[in-house]
Amino acid sequence: MFELKISFGTFLSLFSVIYLSYTIHLYFYSPKLEYKSIFSEILKLSICAGFIIFVYKTCQIYLLRQRYRHIPGPKTNGLLGFYLGNIPELKELVKHKMVPDILADWVKEYGPCFKYQILDKISVFTISPEAIKEMYIEKNFPKHPDIYAVLGFPYGSRYMGTSLVTSLNNERHRHRRHIMNPAFSRQALNGFMDEFNAKSDILMDKLRNLADGKTTIKMLDELNNLTLDVIAAACFGMQNDSITKENNLKKYVFESLRGLNRLLFNPTIKYNPFEWNYIQRYKKLLNDLRNLGRAQIHSRIKALEDDNYVKDDLITLMVKNSKTSSIDIEDLVDDFLTFFVAGQETTSNMLAFAILELGQNIPVLNKLKEEVDSTIGSKNHIDYDDLSKLKYLESVIKETLRKWSITPLINRQSTVPIKIYDYEIPVGSEIQVSSYVSGRMEEFFPDCKKFEPERFYSNEGKINKYTYFPFSLGPRNCIGQNFSIIEGKICLAKFIQNFNFKLDPNQSFEGVQHATINPASGTLAVLEIRSD
Ligand code: HEM
């Protein structure tokens, strides 16, 4: 298909050039040809080119549909459906449901491996544990460019660029991952305990002032500030206080995420002339954010050159290793931004969903209180050794990620033939999987709508990691997974230690999909300081 595209593009350009040269030639050498004739010739050329494109696209879509016709999936409707694929029904369905919920419904209707069409693209979706293992572990397929190109260069401007998350080249990725792994080792995480504790304490102090038994607090907003400050401090040595103050990092990171969400859900806005001003403002914002990252990196380079004391944190590792490899400063800025995008909203949503579930499941909350009280008591600083004793808390977090896997879906591109159940998947296919969807399948998790940390508490070894993979799998899994679990445990343990809470009666129990899945009303809670 790629070959066909190239030769078609070349053919169309050649055709236009020859036709246009011929028209211009006529204009100059034929005295009778009038000035306006050249416009009529250009008009004819445009109509002709439009027609050729239409025929080409029709053939391309026809061939594409033929290649995937043996795989089941939602039908497309009539002639419009031939060209638009499943867009019309998806547009209706997303008014009431998140995309992963629609995919879960389609699994029930079409089976564990199905295809769907969006314009001239067909994606395959599967929950098959065997196929997931094959794609993510055994064959280590690369990421498919569709989503990652937008994350790397939204609106044509460099955001995450070709970073750890967005790199499509597995070899380049492996090299960079190798450099960064030590910043997330057990020893490094142990070294972050002071930051995790200190930032959570600032949040608890703020919440204590609001815990009057009446004020409704939007927990997600507060948690967003916490997780931003934790990454800034632990990974990059930046001491912001976003929990109590405004600052540029907070403004830039949050607004850049909002712009990314708009584009992911409405890719046409970049062609909309009425959005021109917004896009220019967004590009400036990305520029400011990158300048901020660049300044931080330069200051660490200078500190290292001057032999000043610096922590052996992520930014130090990145800077030191860039000297001995082909990583330039803009690559480092890509990774700087990536850690905020990948690690901030994900962790705050996980915590907000955990509080939402605890607020609805009082027996679970009470069991958790017992564990926190008996393990931490009134102790202020949670130590690394305390973490392993908070086993039920860990199960609460894991169950939260089963029911509310924060990343809606991830994808891979097949580079060799692969068979999923009885279906041969064409080479080059985009194959999507989703821990959210797998986590909500009755056959993998009986009573899957129920929030039951016991699944993980007493059954841990029995959970199949190819049906539960909120942090992805294989060489491209989440580098920050232990970081976020520890951060989450410390924050939640302190929250439970300090407060009783109720959910606001206006709280929604739905999720809403942005780049990540969020609790729809942001977990609205009314807090009281614990006296029991
Ligand atoms: C609950 C919290 C989190 C969840 C659910 C989560 C989930 C994920 C998932 C699913 C991926 C794979 C993405 C893909 O294939 O496109 C990923 C990758 C990544 N995550 Fe996380 N993440 C979380 C927290 C964090 C934190 C705290 C950090 C950093 C401090 C982080 C940094 C990254 C990075 C850098 C990658 C790319 C890794 C690579 O390709 O080598 N994440 N995460």
From TrEMBL:
<comment type="similarity">
    <text>Belongs to the cytochrome P450 family.</text>
</comment>
<protein>
    <submittedName>
        <fullName>Cytochrome P450</fullName>
    </submittedName>
</protein>
<dbReference type="InterPro" id="IPR036396">
    <property type="entry name" value="Cyt_P450_sf"/>
</dbReference>
<dbReference type="InterPro" id="IPR039983">
    <property type="entry name" value="CYP46A1"/>
</dbReference>
<dbReference type="GO" id="GO:0006707">
    <property type="term" value="P:cholesterol catabolic process"/>
</dbReference>
<keyword id="KW-0503">Monooxygenase</keyword>
<dbReference type="GO" id="GO:0005506">
    <property type="term" value="F:iron ion binding"/>
</dbReference>
<keyword id="KW-0479">Metal-binding</keyword>
<dbReference type="InterPro" id="IPR001128">
    <property type="entry name" value="Cyt_P450"/>
</dbReference>
<dbReference type="InterPro" id="IPR017972">
    <property type="entry name" value="Cyt_P450_CS"/>
</dbReference>
<keyword id="KW-0812">Transmembrane</keyword>
<keyword id="KW-0472">Membrane</keyword>
<feature type="transmembrane region" description="Helical">
    <location>
        <begin position="42"/>
        <end position="64"/>
    </location>
</feature>
<dbReference type="Pfam" id="PF00067">
    <property type="entry name" value="p450"/>
</dbReference>
<keyword id="KW-1133">Transmembrane helix</keyword>
<dbReference type="GO" id="GO:0033781">
    <property type="term" value="F:cholesterol 24-hydroxylase activity"/>
</dbReference>
<dbReference type="InterPro" id="IPR002401">
    <property type="entry name" value="Cyt_P450_E_grp-I"/>
</dbReference>
<feature type="binding site" description="axial binding residue">
    <location>
        <position position="478"/>
    </location>
    <ligand>
        <name>heme</name>
    </ligand>
</feature>
<feature type="transmembrane region" description="Helical">
    <location>
        <begin position="6"/>
        <end position="30"/>
    </location>
</feature>
<keyword id="KW-0408">Iron</keyword>
<keyword id="KW-0560">Oxidoreductase</keyword>
<keyword id="KW-0349">Heme</keyword>
<dbReference type="GO" id="GO:0020037">
    <property type="term" value="F:heme binding"/>
</dbReference>
